[in-house]
Specification:
The complex is a heterodimer of chains A (90) and B (176).
Chain A lengths: L3 H12 L5 H4 L2 H62 L2
Chain B lengths: L7 H9 L3 H19 L7 H17 L9 H22 L17 H12 L4 H12 L4 H8 L3 H22 L1
Helix pairs in contact in B: 1-2, 2-3, 2-4, 3-4, 4-6, 6-8, 7-8
The chains are: A mainly alpha (90), B mainly alpha (176).
């Protein structure tokens, strides 16, 4: 689709060079600063993302520990009872 | 810098080892072309500065993916294209009005006025339309090159360019 008025606009826009001097000035310094800043942000971001998993692991460990303690207690009670009864027997 | 300048591949290897000076040199070498292309999509000032920074941060993060089979400049141009497209899409979600001076007739305005009118019209195109028409008509890139930069097929680039011209024409006619 050739349109002379559109082509004239494109020609005119090409004739006006974009002014990039301000953006180019010391760009490398700003880029490196941003990369360093993003690198420093990584730890808290990852820590925050891993928080639910860490919490789930902690809960699982706690449940396992409680279950283990209960098993141990249930096994210990009959032995204590047996010992007590044994001692009371004439 | 003393002596011959190291090739891009040497700088990339050094940057991958964490040499920030090498990466700064890569930015220095390519910032002119990157900013020139990005300026077609960003608003002057902070918008362009932010976009240029975003492009080079993406270059830094993706540096390990550069295989060296194509020139580094071309690889950076692909990242620039992708970043500009993302920038346009993001901006469309949060549009800002673009000021337009009173240039009534297309044929009577001077170059700056025509460029402003075109910028006003381009701002109203979809991200895809604006990307393809800018690369084709303002950057004067070939269809094959645009296909390589965008990852689209050449047929899609041609179809999209045609639709973009029709849409732009319609937008500018409504302005008149």
């Amino acid at each position: 689709m050739n349109d002379p008025s559109l082509d004239a606009l494109f020609r005119a826009a090409r004739a006006v060079p974009p002014d990039t001097a301000r953006a180019e000035f010391a760009l490398e310094t700003r880029v490196l600063a941003r990369i360093r800043a993003e690198g420093n942000e990584d730890w808290p971001v990852w820590a925050w993302r891993l928080l639910p998993y860490a919490g789930a692991v902690a809960v699982a460990c706690a449940m396992w520990a409680v279950a283990d303690w209960r098993d141990g207690a249930e096994e210990a009670v009959p032995e204590a009872l047996v010992a007590m009864v044994w001692e009371e027997m004439p | 810098m003393d002596g011959p300048e190291p090739p891009d591949s040497t700088l990339v290897r050094a940057a991958l080892r964490g040499d920030e000076g090498a990466f700064a040199e890569i930015v220095r070498r390519h910032k002119g072309r990157v900013c020139a292309m990005a300026s077609r999509f960003a608003r002057p000032g902070d918008d362009l500065d932010d976009l240029a920074q975003e492009i080079f941060v993406r270059v830094w993060k993706g540096l390990g993916a550069w295989r060296g089979d194509a020139p580094l400049g071309h690889w950076i141009a692909r990242i620039t294209t992708r970043a500009c497209y993302d920038h346009l899409r993001k901006r469309q979600a949060h549009p800002e009005p673009v000021a337009l001076l009173d240039h009534d007739a297309l044929g009577e305005a001077e170059d700056v006025g025509k460029a402003e009118l075109l910028a006003w019209g381009l701002e109203r195109l979809s991200a895809e339309d604006r990307l393809v028409i800018t690369l084709l008509e303002l950057e004067e890139r070939a269809v094959k090159e645009i296909a390589s930069l965008t990852g689209w097929s050449e047929a899609k680039v041609k179809t999209r360019a045609h639709r973009a011209r029709v849409a732009l024409k319609r937008i500018l006619q409504h302005k008149r």
